[in-house]
Write a structure and sequence with these properties.
This protein is of the alpha/beta class. Helices cover 50% and strands 17% of the residues. It binds adenosine-5'-diphosphate and magnesium ion.
């Protein structure tokens, strides 16, 4: 008799322990989460990436196109004495003719609005994070920031952005002579403030890395409540800053076109609210998988204890197995996207 009971208990424990909420629930939760994220516009390539997203504690943002629309406008023109506004804009627009940079496009648009013709430059060189050097005939035009001009031993006049908070000053020089500055201002995305607040509510730190001038970056960061800001960074310096954060043990997600390669996860597109939602989904998925894991261990433990006291028979074991597995699956279905409203 004793042997029979042992055998029955053993079989029962195996049946209960087969209740693997991990095996049943995990793929379902991940599938649901990936589907949900896709609906938010975030392509998550697999469960491993969701796990990484769930642990993100730092979000690095760039300014242009991410916190702002990336379609700035020239708001002010400051030529040096003796030079007309149109002449200054014309010189800048020649250099920016072939520029893909939002600042360049703003300047070319402004020239068009003024009816100023900007001819093609003969040569054109773009220094990332600094600006442009172009030549037309024997004329050499420089358009960019203070660092670009300083590299040629030129100093600009008073800051054009002093008159315009949150505007970027673009300096213009021709043949070694400073011609003046343009103030170019971008519009903040209306959802950016809310998204930054939501990230902070999740306990995530926000860091703004930008090539723009410190004064402009500070105004934007203050306006939106961004935690940390570093300005006047060249593209490779942005990369170094992100790598330093990762090396310091921070789990970094980056939004925008800041040095993509160095982050753990990169989200395409620049809707910050979608990023927030994707982070929430990843965290919820991790919680559900953890619940299923703990649940499975608990059910198995209870099964073993019941069997030890002789309370477990194969039928009850089968019932516990099916009931618990169903519970874990239902728990995981909470991740499945709800039908579209
Ligand atoms: P962001 O972090 O805003 O993307 P970028 O690295 O693109 O910054 O540019 C940094 C700075 O370099 C700009 O704020 C501007 O001063 C200067 N700059 C870059 N490209 C241009 C350009 N085409 N014309 C004028 N200035 C430029
Ligand atoms: Mg840029």
């Amino acid at each position: 008799m004793a042997h029979t009971r042992d055998a029955r208990s053993t079989i029962s424990v195996i049946i209960v322990a087969g209740a693997c909420g991990i095996a049943a629930g995990t793929p379902l939760a991940l599938l649901g989460a990936i589907g949900r994220s896709a609906r938010e516009g975030a392509i998550v390539k697999g469960g491993r990436y969701l796990e990484v997203l769930a642990t993100v504690d730092t979000v690095v943002l760039d300014k242009t196109g991410t916190l702002t629309f990336g379609t700035p406008e020239v708001v002010c023109v400051h030529p040096v004495d003796g030079l007309g506004e149109d002449e200054l804009v014309a010189a800048a627009a020649i250099a920016e003719r072939r520029s893909e940079h939002p600042l360049g496009k703003a300047i070319v648009r402004n020239a068009e609005l003024r009816g100023v013709t900007a001819v093609e430059p003969h040569s054109f060189a773009y220094a990332p994070g600094l600006g442009i050097r172009a030549t037309i005939g024997s004329r050499e035009i420089l358009v960019g920031n203070r660092a670009l001009l300083a590299g040629r031993g030129l100093t600009a006049g008073a800051s054009a952005s002093e008159h315009h908070e949150a505007a970027t000053e673009v300096l213009v020089a021709e043949d070694g002579r400073y011609l003046g500055a343009l103030a170019v201002r971008d519009t903040l995305r209306p959802e950016a403030r809310e998204a930054i607040g939501a990230l902070h509510a999740l306990g995530i730190r926000t860091v703004l890395l930008t090539g723009d001038a410190g004064s402009t970056a500070t105004v934007v960061a203050r306006e939106l409540g961004v935690d940390e800001v570093e300005a006047e960074l060249l593209p490779e310096e942005k990369l170094a800053r992100v790598e330093a954060l990762v090396a310091a043990g921070r789990r970094v997600a980056m939004v925008g076109d800041v040095a993509r390669e160095s982050a753990d996860v990169v989200l395409l597109g620049n809707d910050l609210l979608k990023l927030v939602e994707t982070l929430r989904i990843a965290r919820k998925t991790r919680r559900i998988i953890y619940e299923n894991f703990i649940g499975t261990i608990s059910v198995d433990t209870i099964g073993i204890v019941l069997a030890a006291f002789g309370f477990l028979n194969p039928l009850l074991a089968a019932f516990i197995h099916v009931a618990s597995e169903l519970t874990f699956i239902l728990n995981s279905t909470r991740m499945l996207p709800s039908p579209r409203r």
